[in-house]
Amino acid sequence: MLKLTLCVLLVLGATAINVQSSIWTNRDQKALAQIHSSGWGKFILNYAELHMTTGGILSELNSEIEKLVGELEEELAGVHHEFNRRTDVHNREVSRLEQEIQDKERELFNAHDFYDNVLIPQRDRFAAQLEQLQENIAHNRQTLEQATVQRENDHEVFEAQVAEHNDAISAIDECLQLLSTLEAPSLAQIKKVQKNLSKIQNSLKKHNQFQIFVKVLLEITVESNFADQGALRDIVVAFNDLRVELVDSLNQLTADEAQDVADYNAQVIQLNQEHAEFQRAVVVKNAEIEANATKIEQTLELIDELDADLATLNGQLQAENDDYAFATDVYNSTVAEYNKEINAANQALELLNQPRFQDYVKSQLKGA
Fold first, then answer.
1. What is the pLDDT of residues 55-89, one digit of tens each?
2. What is the SS3 assignment for 204?
3. How many Å separate Cα 64 from the centre of its chain?
4. What end-to-end distance do the CA atoms of the chain give, in Å?
5. Using 50, 70 and 90 to split pLDDT, how confident is the model at 4?
6. Rounded to 5 degrees, what are φ and ψ at 163?
7. Which of 14, 18, 44, 253 could be joined to 10 by an S-S link, Cβ 3.0–4.6 Å?
8. DSSP state of 354
9. 159-186 pLDDT, tens per residue?
């Protein structure tokens, strides 16, 4: 660059020996005046004057300027080539970074979508299911406890009814035993039979179906004459009928109790099976909840990692754009400087080849 500037100033400086010469046009005088006012212009003027006195200056300057113009244009082509190469690298890098950013944004969106629309609803659903299982377990145990208490109560009622029936049957047997020995019963024996009937009545007062029998027997024992064997046989038949009814009732109570015990045992088995299934379901559900929690933690870590990667890629893209913008500014300024120098060289070359410049040189040599 310095070499070209020196040569241009050399040419223009040579003409500054007499800027006001009538040879130059106004445009030429203006350009020559500008170079004449500079330090380099003064140097070139002296250098040009030396060459003019020794001869051959015009051809030397013309050849040198043409050579320098070629070198400058070659250097400028190199600048264009380097910048084009840098542009290609920039475009590839920007394309790569933008694609990676797009991929990261897609991954980040998918991670957020998976977290918001899959993992969180799944976590809430698992929690609700576990709560329901715990409620089922509590209800299962409560049902078992209630069934056990009811079975105990029912068994106590059964035992009381069995005792009542046995007491009534024993009283009937005692009456039958007593009646079998009666031929001319005394008043004391009749009272004893009536007392046993009252005992039977008290034992069976909770059983309405037997109250009619007891009432009839009481009436018979009050009104009957036990000396009448026909009436006695009727009383014995009535007692035997009542005894049969009581035995059948006791057998039914026993059968019902056995069925109730079987039903209770089956219910206990079923409730315990359900309880075991609920417990297994709780174990499975807790494992699912733990796996969900682990997946949530991993997804949040992935989101943080993707955010960091995305920030890094955006930073790299910004840095590349900034670096390319700086390279573009340098390129533009360099090209402008080269164009300025080339234009100046071409302008000097054009001036050298003008006839009036050659006439001016000859006039200066004659004057010397």
1. 555 566 667 667 777 888 899 999 999 999 999 99
2. coil
3. 75
4. 33
5. very low
6. -65, -40
7. 44
8. S
9. 988 988 888 788 778 777 766 765 555 6
Q: Find all residues with CB under 8 Å of 361, minimum gap 6, and list them.
A: 14, 52, 57, 58
Q: Model confidence over 100-131: pLDDT tens digits? A: 999 999 999 999 999 999 999 999 999 999 99
Q: What is the pTM of this model?
A: 0.64
Six token digits for residue 189: 């024996």
Selection from 342, 334, 337, 354 nearest residue 32 by Cα: 354
Query: Which residues make Cβ contacts (< 8 Å) with residue 136, sequence separation at least 6?
Result: 274, 278
Count Cβ atoms within 10 A of the Cβ of residue 229 and give its class: 0-12 exposed, 13-18 middle, 19 or more buried: exposed
DSSP letter (8 states) at residue 116: I
CA 92, CA 101: separation in Å to the nearest integer? 14
Q: Which long-range contacts (CB under 8 A, 24 or more apart) does 362-366 make?
A: 363/23, 364/17, 364/18, 364/52, 365/52, 365/53
Rounded Cα distance between 224 and 233, Å, is 11
Q: How far apart are the C-alpha atoms of 4 and 65, rounded to whole Å?
A: 7
pLDDT in tens, 224-246: 555 556 767 777 787 788 889 88
CB 242 within 8 A of CB 213: yes
Length of the chain in residues, anyone? Answer: 368
Residues 6+ apart with CB under 8 A from 59: none
